[in-house]
Write a structure and sequence with these properties.
This protein is of the alpha+beta class and about 300 residues long. The protein is built from 7 helices and 14 strands. The strands form 4 sheets. Strands 1-9-8-7-12 form a 5-stranded antiparallel β-sheet. A 5-stranded mixed β-sheet has the order 5-6-10-11-13. It starts with 7 loop residues before the first strand and ends with a strand.
């Protein structure tokens, strides 16, 4: 029974091979795609992408994971606030579970029904190696179904937790000519000197993302759930603190999208994705290596799943 909907576009070309390139994992690029934008923002972003690629062609040693994080996690004076989104695409996990509860109550004539779903069930329909953003019971949640292509050994996922290493984020709007794309780059330290960086290109009208956003800006921590083929039915579940600087970053970018752009059709969204890929062929393109905001490890969460 399909419970999950999430309109996130993944940059994947099945004929491509993704490899580590200096400090980051290389993102699949579509060789048949090219940019058709004449905007100044895309021109400058292309230049950033080219310089980023050139810089990463030269190996550089990094002594510490801290070299990837911005120094002041609380920088900025903007306030975060819940947004009233102009539209909502699809239904979130919470909404779908609630719909099932209502339907079962009506069909069975009972007052109380519990519907449950595990993270593994939820992620089974999601794209591999792409962070999935949602929320439940006002707790922001990120699920990630990893493969051997990105993490060859599941022990590399456990080591950061045993050592209580932080994860990181960088969030930036891609100012596409037709439809705004929210780029969320997630850094996981499977290797402290060469951490894994994965990108999600988000349509802010997506229901699950909107639930995530409204939970994230008021929460003190987020839950992370990782699956991997080597883990079988097991799940790595933990939680991380949310620094104020990250809330400010997310709020500012969402506000930029909501206040500055008119939304187009899903066709325009796809066109903007292609435009973004041409400007940013790698997951880290356009992001300085020391600008990720650090989220400290907070503890083992042992996430079981969702119920309503």
């Amino acid at each position: 029974m399909e419970l999950i909907y999430f309109s996130t576009f993944i940059r994947v070309n099945k004929s491509s091979i993704r490899t580590r390139m200096n400090l980051f994992k290389k993102v699949f690029s579509r060789s048949e795609q090219s940019s058709h934008s004449n905007t100044d923002s895309c021109v400058s972003q292309k230049e950033d992408s080219k310089s980023s690629k050139a810089k990463n062609d030269t190996p550089k040693a990094n002594d510490s994971l801290d070299s990837f994080f911005v120094g002041n996690e609380e920088k900025g004076s903007k306030k975060t606030e819940e947004k009233v989104f102009p539209n909502r695409i699809g239904k979130s996990i919470t909404e779908k579970l609630n719909d099932q509860v209502d339907e079962l109550k009506e069909n069975k004539g009972v007052d109380k029904v519990t519907v449950s779903m595990t993270w593994k069930e939820m992620l089974s329909s999601k794209s591999n190696d792409v962070p999935f953003f949602t929320a439940f019971n006002d707790i922001p949640c990120i699920g990630l179904k990893l493969t051997h292509q990105f993490v060859t050994n599941a022990d590399d996922l456990v080591t950061p937790i045993e050592n209580k290493w932080p994860v990181g984020f960088y969030i930036k709007t891609f100012e596409a000519s037709k439809f705004p794309i929210l780029r969320i780059q997630f850094l996981y330290p499977d290797n402290p000197s060469q951490p894994l960086v994965l990108e999600t290109a988000i349509n802010v009208l997506n229901a699950d993302f909107q639930d995530f956003y409204n939970a994230f800006i008021i929460a003190t921590h987020f839950d992370l759930a990782l699956t991997h083929p080597d883990l079988g039915d097991r799940l790595i579940g933990c939680k991380y603190s949310i620094p104020g600087g990250l809330k400010i970053m997310l709020c500012a970018e969402v506000l930029r999208i909501l206040s500055k752009y008119q939304f187009g059709s899903e066709t325009s969204y796809s066109e903007s994705i292609r435009e973004m890929e041409a400007c940013f062929p790698y997951s880290h393109s356009g992001t300085p290596t020391n600008e990720y905001i650090k989220c400290p490890y907070e503890g083992d969460n042992r996430i079981k799943g969702f119920s309503s």
